[in-house]
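Good morning C.,

I know you're traveling, so I'll keep this short. The sequence:
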Amino acid sequence: MLEYNETNRITVELHRLPNSVGLPLPSYATQASAGIDLVAAIDKSVSLKPGDRLLVPTGIALSVPDEFEAQIRPRSGLAIKHGITTLNSPGTIDSDYRGEIFVILINHGTEPFRLERGMRIAQLVVAPVVRIAWRECDVLEKTKRGKGGLGSTGVLSL
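The tokens, ready to paste straight into the viewer:
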């Protein structure tokens, strides 16, 4: 059941797994942050070489309310400073998933990157999900753009 508290926040149940002992719970960095920082729940440091990707545990499992999803997004600081980002971004955590949350990191940089236990590696954003109902038709409504694809609005020309 969807529950809002006095500050207009939804309640998301969190289960801390054994590999997260001693790590902080995910939290907002500032009062206006949209994303909650997720940390690496790894046993020891790992070197991520350029081009390598790694499935990183976070040590938590969630119960996201129906009609919502949790999205895994990159951290801009890791991206600009080290070329570290998330694959499958944004990654979707469906409301019926109850397993550990993992983050797929990739090193697009030119140097190896040392991933440490407790390091902030990604952000989690909870967002509403809008379900669609298909309505087949023979003709779509015409627009000025029409069938114009890549570059058709003058931003990119091939």
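Safe travels,
E.
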